[in-house]
Known about the structure:
Elements: H1 4-27, H2 44-47, E1 52-53, H3 55-67, H4 99-103, H5 115-131, E2 138-139, H6 140-147
Antiparallel strand pairs: 1-2
Helix pairs in contact: 1-3, 1-5, 3-6
Amino acid sequence: MPAPNTQRNDRTHTAIAAVREVYADLAARPIERNCVRLTECCQFRHTGCTPWLTDAEAVLAVKAFRAAGRTRLTEPPDGSCPMLDARSGRCVIYADRPFACRTHFCEAAGGPYARREVLDLIRRLEAISTEMGGEGPRPIASALARYM
């Protein structure tokens, strides 16, 4: 029987792969979007909207954050996303950014996706998180902090 850490690592690896598959399936949909990385939607205090992440997405985001050489998560005083680089203002995990960042309210990218267009993907993300023992979606800062 594998050790508990080995089982947890296997579940985590499987969850990360499954989340990336959901993101790829979203990208393959014929919904017209064009994110030009203005980061206006990353200014949570200004927009009044904060992305919520499933546990599986948070694990992937933290992995990408660490791969970018980051070790400490801080909540910026200006109310922006903690995944933005303080110097450049760019997302340090853009390729692995959460589902909500890919689909929510950014008007410059084409506006929000209709929930009916992506509900099946949302349910898949929730199922992946449930399989890994997740507790349900939560705001980005607290979701990330859980896995830092």
